[in-house]
Each structure stands twice: as structure tokens, then as C-alpha cells.
Write a structure and sequence with these properties.
The longest helix has 16 residues. The chain has a single domain, classed as STAS domain (Transcription Regulator spoIIAA, 2-Layer Sandwich). The strands form two sheets. The chain has a five-stranded mixed beta sheet. A two-stranded parallel ribbon has the order 3-5. With 115 residues, it is of the alpha/beta class. The N and C termini lie far apart (33 Å).
């Protein structure tokens, strides 16, 4: 799975470049996120603006990443739309994750919470 990464102050913006986070791709994504967290990334914005399909495996990957950061950091989402947002609402994961319309708002929220 290919990920674009950009560091803004102490926030890492991670953008999956795959349109689908399903099956094997979700497993690869989970491994990539675990590596970033193990390397010490504590404030992560996950920009899902390129993702148009996610299954329960993909959703589980996001939740696992959030759990890995508990107590030492935060993971927020941005650019969630269409079918992916519907999945979040149906599963009530929109109540678990902080979701922002765009990455700039997400980055600003993480920076404000880290002051």
C-alpha cells in the first residue's frame, strides 16, 4: 500500500493513495500504521480523501491504529466522504473518531490539543 506522508510541525499527515482499503490492502495499511506509531509518531491525521471504499477489515485497521496510540497520542480523520462516511455512521465509528472536513482543520485541531 502506498502512503503519502507530510510532516506539519509535530503532526504527521498520512494519505493512503489507494482508492480501496479492503482485504489484503487493509492488512498492509495496518502494518504501515503500526510502523509509524512504533517510530514515535504521536499526532496523526489520516487523510482519507482518496479512499472511496472501505470494508470492515479497513475499519478495524483504523480502530487498531487508534488503540495503539491511546495514552500517548491521537489519530484524527479528514476528507471522509461518500460510502466511507456511510460506513462510519452505520457502525457508529463516527462517534469514536474525530472526523474533520479537511486536513487543515484536522491539523489545526491536533496542534491546538498538543499545546
Amino acid at each position: 500500500m502506498q502512503l503519502a506522508q507530510e510532516k506539519i510541525a509535530q503532526v504527521l499527515v498520512v494519505k493512503p493513495l489507494e482508492a480501496r482499503i479492503v482485504g489484503v490492502v487493509a492488512t498492509e495499511f495496518k502494518q504501515a500504521m503500526a510502523t509509524l506509531i512504533d517510530e514515535g509518531q504521536e499526532a496523526i491525521v489520516l487523510d482519507l480523501s482518496e479512499v472511496d471504499l472501505m470494508d470492515s477489515t479497513g475499519l478495524g485497521t483504523l480502530f487498531a491504529s487508534l488503540k495503539m496510540l491511546r495514552g500517548k497520542g491521537d489519530l484524527v480523520l479528514s476528507g471522509v466522504s461518500g460510502k466511507v462516511m456511510s460506513l462510519f455512521k452505520i457502525t457508529e465509528m463516527d462517534q469514536i473518531f474525530r472526523i474533520f472536513a479537511n486536513r487543515d482543520d484536522a491539523v489545526a485541531a491536533l496542534l491546538a490539543s498538543r499545546r
